[in-house]
Amino acid sequence: MLHLSFFPLLMLLLAATLGAAFPQDALKKSCSLSKYQFLVPHELKAMQKMKEQFEDIMLLSDRKCNTRVFHRKWSPAELSVPDRVMLVEAELDLTTAMLALPANPSFTEMRQRPLAFLTQAQEDLRGCMATEAPSHQPSRKLRHWLQKLQTAKKTETAGCLEASAILHLFQVLNDLRCAALREQCT
């Protein structure tokens, strides 16, 4: 009887020892974006509802925006995988910042689920950049687009940047899917 209770204690001790030998941070070092290859329908639905509500709000406003941040003459498929990850990271930085802006209470509530999803994706991408390509230099195409984004952040109003980010939300999600594929995407 003594031997039966000793075995679980030994297993517990072994698990604690192995846990100390391999800290949790070491296990997190791998980069996996595979969960973004196919987005869950309820996440897409929440984003679609938010975008539709925003479009309704836009119809009632008289905003005049000239920003073309998300318009590019090239496709993310033309970029290397580290460039795609950098592109999506920059897009997500803008989008999450815009979704975090104060809004009317009903729209703030509508933003919560998409904001949480996009913030998690942003954290996952940052982890990938830190582990897989910490010193990656962007290509000329991407560098030019990143400069255009920085200029827009300085010259455009928050309302115009918000509109651009929300209206191009599904482009950002497609770029995220493309970065998650880790190979050529379409």
UniProtKB/TrEMBL annotation:
Domain of life of the native organism: Eukaryota
GO-annotated molecular function: cytokine activity
Tagged with keyword Nucleotidyltransferase: no
Keyword Secreted set for record: yes
Sorted UniProt keywords: Antiviral defense, Cytokine, Secreted, Signal
Annotated localization: Secreted
GO biological process, one term: positive regulation of immune response
UniProt cross-references to PANTHER family, sorted A to Z: INTERFERON LAMBDA-2-RELATED, INTERLEUKIN-28 AND 29
Record protein name field: IFNL3 protein
Provenance organism: Ibidorhyncha struthersii
Phylogenetic placement of the source organism: Eukaryota, Metazoa, Chordata, Craniata, Vertebrata
Gene assigned in the entry: Ifnl3
